[in-house]
Design a protein that fits this description.
alpha+beta
Length: 74
């Protein structure tokens, strides 16, 4: 993955960490370890997972109003 600071803003981490019930440090660690994904666009997310009603392969996911999507695969 690219340098996380180039892809994710701290404000985004704080907002999303509430959804995943993790703190920003835990989020960064999971992203670095590849246990969470950050998609910069909805198109990139749909390219990998497709457009479905539910995403059974994901534990959880969150789309921000700027188009970024954070996912946590099972």
């Amino acid at each position: 993955m690219k340098n996380i600071a180039d892809v994710v803003h701290i404000g985004e981490l704080i907002a999303v960490s509430k959804v995943f019930q993790l703190n920003p440090f835990q989020m960064i660690t999971l992203i670095e370890q590849g246990q969470m994904e950050v998609f910069e666009t909805k198109e990139a997310f749909l390219e990998k997972y497709g457009e479905k009603e539910t995403y059974d392969e994901l534990e959880d996911w969150c789309e921000l109003n700027d188009g970024k999507i954070f996912t946590k695969p099972k």
